[in-house]
Each structure stands twice: as structure tokens, then as C-alpha cells.
Automatic annotation (TrEMBL):
Protein name per the record: Protein NDNF
Database matches in PANTHER family: NEURON-DERIVED NEUROTROPHIC FACTOR, PROTEIN NDNF
Signal peptide: 1-23
GO BP: nervous system development
The species this protein was found in: Steatornis caripensis
Amino acid sequence: LKMSWFCFYLPLHLLTVACLCHSIKVPTTSSQLSFKTDLFNFYHSLILADGKETTIHLLKDIPKRYYFVLEEGRALAPFTITVTPCDVPIEWSILVHKASASFLGKAARGDHGTQEVSKSQKAPNMVSTIFNYKGNSVETYMGMSSHSALYMLEFLSTERDTHITVYLTTDTTSGNLYPELPMDPRIDVIGIGYTTVTLTWKHSPSVLQHRENIQYCLLVNEKHNYKSLCAAETAIRSSGMKLPSTLALSLSPYLLEPQQVMILSNSELSIINKGSSGEVRQICMGTKNTYTVSNLSPSTQYYFDVFVVNLLTNASTAYTGTFARTLEEPEPKVMELKDGKVIQVVLDGKKQKFYSLQYQARHKKIQFTFQLCRGQVRVHITKNSRTVASENISGLRYFSLKGKLLDTYLVQLRSTEESNSSVKVQVSPHFHKPLFPLLPESLKIKSFSKLRTCNSVTIAWLGTQEQSKYCVYKKRIEADQVWMELQSADRCSGPESRHKSEKVLCKYFFDINLQRAVTTETIKGLDAGTLYLFDIYLFGPSGIPVRYHSKVVKTRKKC
């Protein structure tokens, strides 16, 4: 009995299987009638493309079926099927209906999971499962058939919705879609430092044969290793990060998301993805097989995965991942503070560690002075291991403390920003000889919009009840320099860091009545429609300056 009844119901887009239906005879014995049901399942499946990687989305507990045909007339037709789970473990199997008595097949075993392969059976017209696998490793099945056969692939996810990629090819002569791995696909750790790890791996045969089309890409994270690139991308996306597609690894153009940073230097592409679950780095380094990962955190375990990527197809193959723990950084030495001496400390924002200063009191009353130079700084002071002060500082801050002779004070400083911060520190028992000048209520500079002209601006600032010296400086800037000038300003630097041509004037003034301790100055000789950055430095008796907050003013374009 020909299977014309089944072919009659096939839609037009499945006509490719109609030819096979006419070449397969189905017996009418009761033991084989159930195959009609299997063919009905094939009808409701999808054709698997030959020679193309297919992405398949699976819903939890709902099997999905695809099929393909090995045509008649091809003696010992070989084929391979590669399935890559992109998230959770899945179950998948290969079923075959064959009219022949000869079938040969073998499976390339993976590192994990379970698999079963049926031996050739000499029962004609039989539907059988020839391969079954459960796990999340990349698995490849290699088979060979001597006669026409209809194959069905069934996929099932029992944990959650997920997706996989499937690659079928019947052309084994033109090379594999996926780059090859060496005989030993392990990644070796050959060097570990406080913030660096050096890795090496054996070259892929694909790199040696097609160097211009192949490159290595490294993935670094703090959670675990990944068995495939699509598994890594899925995990990163699910953690809240926006990861570009594999095209990013092949250096194709794409738009970076806000939580991504791209660094391109020395022909290396680095993509840093930041999310709630930590930082993940992608580094593509061409065909180099030794690489040092830098800017890591001390005493932290990192996982490293190397993928060899085909730049023409974006197909990739994973080496066996490894992990390493960076060395623990030694405790920083505690610096001794001396009476009256000013030190400036630069704090690393990335490490977020405390910088420690120690002072042994030679007087019962002492005063700590902190001048914030750049960024934001947290100050923590203990006396004999008990906390006496802890706060974020801004501008100039004094802490006056009482205790006993030989009390031990420990000052700990930490940057509260990711960028570097700096602060000046002084401890002194001499309250009557302050190092820094008496400060006004505000260090802001005010400008008067109505008094602006094409070649002059008028500014004002507050003074104090103490006779002090004030020096005004100006600098011509462009519009795109404003943000950088304001953010990078070192509030501890004095006029010695400025060019002589930027100095406008110096003046002395004070007023016993703080309500009247204000002065104005009109700066002339400016260019029309131009931005200027104004700074004022206040000098006290010790000569150490305090810088007012910079002010940007633009002269009128037309008058």
C-alpha cells in the first residue's frame, strides 16, 4: 500500500517530503500500523534546514519535533547533527523510519549528560530511536545511512522555557560550520597576581588553516563557566545585562547599551557588561593564544572561558573552561601622622579600600583638619579602637577631640566614588595657629547676568571677618570642555598650577559685619560670545590657599 493518502494531505511547503512518501512502503500488519501516527507527527513537525544553524525555542514540558530526509540513491550518505543548549539541560532524541536493513551510526560523547545509541536492526520498515541525550553540553551525533530514511528530532525542556541551536549537515566534504578544537582543549593558568591572571591554550586547527577568518574570544565572570557562547549570552541577559549578539565578538558594528563599556586597543576588543549579578567581560584578541587579564580584584575567584569564533558565520566552539583566584593583597602599611605636617592622600576608587593613618597624641586636645581636593571621601576616626567620628566630608572639615596623653588615633580614608579621590590631612595641638584660613559661609562665586557685556562680566563672592588675600583667575574654554573642567578641578591646588596670563588681580578685604563681608569685581577685556572659567583663591596667615567653586560665565554675543 503506497502512502499516497498521507502525501495528499501535505501542504505545499512540505512537498519535499512527498517524494520520500512515494518511495516508502508501509506494511499493513498490526505491528506496523502505529507508524501512521508517527507520520502524522511528522506532518505536524517542521523541516530542519540542511547546512544552516537553526535557533529553536522550547516551552516547558511541550515537546517540539523537526525532521529531515536522506534521499534515495546516495550510498552510505553521512550526516552530522549538533545541538547546543543555551540555558538549562534538555532532552533530545533522533527517531528514524527506514525501509532498508542496514544502518550505521555513532555519537560523539560530551563531557556530561546521558546518551543511548541503538545498534543496527535488521527489521525492515521499522521506526526506532537511534539516539537519546539529556544534559546541557554541546552534543554532536554522526551517522551514516545506506538507503532513504525519514528522521525526526524531538526536543523537550522540563525545567523552564528555553532555546537551543541545531545544526544539520549532509555535506561532510566542505568542512564544518564550527571551528575545530585541539586534541587538548583545556585552558592553562600560567600566572596569578593580585589583579592579573595569565592564561594560555593550544591553537585551534581552524586558526592554523584559516587565520584571517578565525579569532579567539575570552569571557571572564565571577559565577561559573559556560559550555557555549549562547549559554553565556542567555545567562548574562537573564541577570539584567544587555549583551550584544555574537556579532559583537566578530567585531561587527552594533550599538552599545548604557550598562556596557567598549575598549578597543592594540587590535583587542573588550566589552564590559555591568549588571546586578556582577561584571562580565568579553575580550577578543585575534589569534593570540596567550593572554593576561588585568584590572581584577584581589582575593577573588574568576571563571575563564575561551571561544574560537568563525568571523564569517559567527559560529563558535568552546574550550574547556577554567577558574583561578587572584592573590590576597597584603594589608596596607599604616602611615604615621606628625604634628603640624600636611600630607595629601590619593584614594583608589576602584578598590574601595580604607587608607590608614595613625597618630599618637602628645597633648590632651588635638584637631584633625581635612581638605577635600577631588571626588568624595569617607573619614572614620577611632581613639584606642573606639569610634569618635565617621562621616563623608566636603570642602574643609575640622574635628576637635579631647583625650589623654599617648592616646592612639587611627584615621581611615576611603573614596566613595568609582573614580579616584584625594584629600589633604593635618593633625595639630595648636588651635591658636590654624593652618587653613577662616572660611566664609559659602565658597560659591556669583555672576550678574544683567551686568554682562560683550567684553566684561561682574562677579561677587563672600569674605570673612579676618583680613585675607583673594586672587582672581580666568581661563577661556570651549563649550565641550565645561564638564571636564568642573569635574577634574583639584580644589587643593593653588595659583602655582595656573599660567601667569590667567591671573586677573589680587585684593585684600574683610568686614566685622558678616552681612557686609562681600565684594564684587568687574573683569574687562574679554571677547564677545565667549565662555570663561573664573577661580578665586583665598589665602590665610599660613599661606595655604583655599579655592572657591569654579564659575563659568559667557559674555554677550551682541551688544
